[in-house]
Specification:
This protein is α+β, with helices and mostly antiparallel strands and 162 residues long. Helix content is 46%, strand content 26%. It is built from four helices and seven strands, in the order βαααββββββα. The strands form two sheets. It has a four-stranded antiparallel β-sheet with strand order 1-2-3-4, covered by helices on one side. Strands 5-6-7 form a three-stranded antiparallel β-sheet, with helices on both faces. A hairpin with a 2-residue loop joins strand 2 and strand 3. The longest helix is centred in the middle third of the chain and has 28 residues.
């Protein structure tokens, strides 16, 4: 029997969870990987060319390392900004109709038809909403039977991967 509702009243992600969620979502973005490869290759090229020319000074070293660390640094900065923006807790309520999200200042209701698929990956329950939005909820927030109950609600509504 599928329960009628699962309620997560006080959801707050840690900084480490924000970084991990961004990394998990970013893995599926080819443009980001291309950008990371470009900057890393540029950084490595600066280091290699400078060392071969015998001019590996502090400036060349800094430029090379900055190129290598640029995109991962952007991910960490985005996670920091996301964590800093969490002024209040978020409450999630899963029902047969869909997902209700509320904060101190806003509320939204999303039907299951708006959720394209559901996955568990890296300690997160991930809901893909539309083409480019993924809602990541840490698995630690759910009780022992709640993830199964959420999956049952989603499966009954026809969500892929539930």
């Amino acid at each position: 029997m599928t329960p009628t509702a699962i309620h997560l009243p006080d959801v707050r992600m840690t900084f480490a969870e924000c970084v991990k969620a961004l990394a998990l979502v970013s893995v599926r973005v080819p443009k980001l990987w291309a950008c990371m490869a470009l900057f890393c290759a540029g950084g490595l090229a600066v280091l290699i060319l400078s060392s071969r020319a015998g001019q590996l000074d502090a400036g060349a070293l800094a430029a090379g390392l900055a190129g290598i660390a640029f995109v991962p640094g952007l991910l960490v900065a985005a996670a920091w900004n996301s964590r800093r923006a969490q002024k209040s807790a978020v409450a999630y309520r899963f029902t047969a109709e869909g997902l209700h999200i509320s904060t101190q200042h806003s509320q939204t209701q999303m039907s299951w038809t708006n959720i394209r698929n559901m996955r568990e990956r890296g300690g997160f329950l991930m809901l893909r909403i539309g083409e480019q939005c993924v809602l990541c909820m840490p698995r630690r927030l759910f009780g022992p039977t709640e993830v199964g109950a959420v999956r049952a609600l989603a499966r009954d509504a026809g969500v892929e991967g539930a």
